[in-house]
From TrEMBL:
It catalyses: L-proline + NADP(+) = (S)-1-pyrroline-5-carboxylate + NADPH + 2 H(+); L-proline + NAD(+) = (S)-1-pyrroline-5-carboxylate + NADH + 2 H(+). Belongs to the pyrroline-5-carboxylate reductase family. Keywords: Amino-acid biosynthesis, Cytoplasm, NADP, Oxidoreductase, Proline biosynthesis. It comes from Peptoniphilus grossensis. Pathway: Amino-acid biosynthesis; L-proline biosynthesis; L-proline from L-glutamate 5-semialdehyde: step 1/1. This is Pyrroline-5-carboxylate reductase. Catalyzes the reduction of 1-pyrroline-5-carboxylate (PCA) to L-proline. InterPro entries: 6-PGluconate_DH-like_C_sf, NAD(P)-bd_dom_sf, P5C_Rdtase_cat_N, P5CR-like_CS, P5CR_dimer, Pyrroline-COOH_reductase. One of its GO terms (molecular function) is pyrroline-5-carboxylate reductase activity. HAMAP family: P5C_reductase (MF_01925). Its EC number is 1.5.1.2. The gene is proC. It is found in: Cytoplasm.
């Protein structure tokens, strides 16, 4: 299956790198010549001159553009959409809105996150009713080329975006804040980023591989009257959990 990407911002660029690094032929377009030219040295990258050219050449087209641009781009390409699969990457332009623009066409939502650039995305996939099982299987394999995938019901796509698509930003904020604290107590910033990011990565791996509840894993670190429990108490006092829950709620209430 030949892939197409319209829009080479942070997400589009991340997905393009993931596909191209796995030798998947990918047709690319962005209004910015600079962003297009950034991919000219990839053997499997095909730089196009317009959105329409991408649709004409690809079997599946990913729209990694701003939500407010979707209507404009879909109006440009709709007459060229025959049997191609059109993929939205934002809950702001869901299957219902896609269907209104492209009635009867093959539509799908894919919710990646920016670690796609290093082949570590967590991509949620929500197929429209005209996507066959074989097409879904092939697309899932392709999207798995830059990370892991989950099939998500349409009713859950927004919460998936809130906790997966947005999650890297929350984690980066935590790493930055913890590093600031470490620097204030004398650690070099390079060491702080290196140590903290590995601690985060290792902790996430423990959750996935141990099968234990995160609370139980936390309790294994917090020895009685020890250092960690003092930090945990401070986080609880300052509303650490509530801040995270409120962040997710704010997205859901958008």
């Amino acid at each position: 299956m030949k892939m197409g990407i319209i829009g080479l911002g942070n997400m589009g660029s991340a997905m393009a790198h993931g596909l191209l690094n796995n030798n998947i032929e990918t047709f690319l377009y962005d209004r910015s010549e600079e962003k297009r030219e950034a991919f000219k040295d990839f053997e499997k990258a095909k730089i196009m001159d317009s959105e329409v050219d991408v649709v004409k050449n690809a079997d599946a087209v990913i729209l990694t553009i701003k939500p407010y641009v979707y209507d404009e781009v879909l109006d440009k390409i709709k007459n060229e959409v025959k049997n191609q699969i059109i993929i939205s990457v934002t809950s702001s332009y869901d299957l219902k809105k896609l269907e209104a623009k492209l009635p009867g066409k093959k539509l799908l939502m894919a919710m990646p996150n920016t670690p796609a650039k290093i082949l570590s995305s967590m991509t949620g996939i929500c197929p429209g009713e005209n996507i066959s099982e074989d097409e879904l299987s092939e697309l899932r394999e392709i999207l798995s080329s830059f990370g892991e995938t989950e099939i998500v019901e349409e009713k859950n796509i927004k919460i998936y975006e809130a906790v997966s698509g947005c999650m890297p930003a929350y984690v980066y904020m935590y790493i930055e804040a913890a590093a600031d604290a470490a620097v204030s107590h004398g650690m070099t910033r390079d060491m702080a980023y290196r140590v903290i990011s590995q601690a985060v990565a290792g902790s996430a791996k423990m959750v996935r591989e141990s099968g234990l509840h995160p609370g139980e894993l936390k309790d294994q670190v917090t020895t009685p009257a020890g250092t960690t429990i003092k930090g945990v108490k401070s986080l609880e006092r300052d509303g650490f959990r509530s801040a995270i829950i409120n962040a997710v709620d704010s997205i859901m209430n958008k």
